[in-house]
Write a structure and sequence with these properties.
Elements lengths: L10 H18 L5 E5 L6 H17 L3 E5 L6 H8 L7 E6 L1 H4 L1 H4 L9 E10 L2 E5 L7 H11 L3 E5 L2 H14 L3 E5 L2 H10 L5 E4 L3 H7 L2 E6 L26 E7 L4 H15 L2 H9 L2 E2 L5 H20 L3
Parallel strand pairs: 1-2, 1-3, 6-7, 6-8
Antiparallel strand pairs: 3-10, 4-10, 4-11, 5-8, 5-9
Helix pairs in contact: 2-10
Length: 316
């Protein structure tokens, strides 16, 4: 009778073999096109920056980068799609930090921050509240005093969760009624202000051309600290608030993506961000295009989650 010998390989050997193969795979990365899914529609700030960077990033990585737009739900549609993608570094998400820090706290999302690892932040939107140039107020406090004198509520164009957070905080602190007037995106907010339909509106950067032309003026920055693009404008901190809505442009991968791949991608992205053409791209969109690494970006989002949770717990 022939003896059958069964070779027993220790589990540790299998693990070592798996890890070594994963390491080789990571070292070879990328070997095929990479898709960056943008959480907003084509033509917006996030989309324009990502498409502006991809030719340089493609050169650094030595592989084609494809850009795909999946707008909706404050970046949530794209986030859900990418969270279900294979964690191999070939499908990444470009969206804003509020997609992870705010949307899941307000809406019933089918993803959470735990579904991602954040590779880097590549920019900060220059968020402000602005108004039409001929309005009889120049600051938030003057607007509040004007509304009280007139005996009416303040109307603010509203199109996403960050502007609602600012409105909520002002209402709570000042004890004044502010009505969010729904508009379609940043362009809708601009038109509502210029058309005199509202007293103020939020803008992440498209305000610049209208302020420069003299059609609009700034009331305050919605960031906690001063803006790079408007350093003399009062910030939320100056106004006595303990939070700000600096919206970061982030690049993220599905949780479980090998760290070696994340490092490879982030190093290429950091090198891309140092190219002189990037500063020109930032100026064209009135954005602060600056690089934050993996650790810093993850911390930014954790801090935002905590800050927004505190504000939401106070109610309207």
């Amino acid at each position: 009778m022939k003896t059958i010998r069964i070779l027993v390989v220790p589990v540790a050997a299998f693990v070592a073999l798996f890890l070594s193969l994963a390491m080789v795979h990571a070292q070879d990365y990328p070997t095929k096109p990479i898709t960056i899914v943008v959480g907003y529609s084509a033509g917006g700030g996030t989309d324009t920056v990502v498409r502006g960077l991809t030719p340089l990033l493609s050169q650094k990585l030595g592989e084609t980068i494809l850009v795909q737009n999946k707008g909706g739900a404050g970046g949530g549609v794209a986030a859900h799609a990418v969270s279900k993608s294979k964690a191999d570094g070939y499908t990444l998400l470009a969206t804003t930090s509020s997609t992870f820090s705010l949307e899941p706290q307000i809406n019933r999302t089918v993803y959470s921050n735990d579904d991602f690892v954040h590779v880097a932040s590549i920019g900060q939107f220059q968020g402000v509240m602005f108004t039409k140039a001929d309005k009889p107020f120049n600051t938030l406090q003057e607007l509040i005093e004007f509304a009280r004198k007139e005996g009416r509520t303040i109307k603010s164009a509203s199109y996403f969760q960050l502007d609602k957070m600012v409105i909520r905080a002002i209402k709570s602190k000042e004890g004044i009624e502010i009505i969010p007037m729904p508009v379609k995106g940043g362009n809708g907010a601009i038109q509502a202000v210029l058309g005199g339909e509202v007293d103020m509106a939020y803008s992440g950067g498209s305000w610049a051309q209208h302020v420069k032309s003299g059609a609009a003026k700034l009331l305050f920055a919605t960031s906690y600290n001063h803006l790079k693009m408007a350093p003399d404008l009062v910030s939320m901190k100056d106004l006595g608030y303990d939070f700000g809505t600096t919206n970061y442009l982030t690049v993220s991968a599905p949780a479980g993506t090998p760290q070696e791949i994340l490092v490879r991608f982030s190093k290429a992205l950091e090198a891309t961000m140092s190219d002189p053409s990037v500063e020109k791209l930032g100026r064209s969109r009135n954005m602060d295009l600056s690089y934050l690494g993996q650790k810093e970006t993850n911390q930014v989002i954790v801090d935002e989650i905590t800050a927004f949770k505190q504000i939401l717990s106070k109610g309207d």
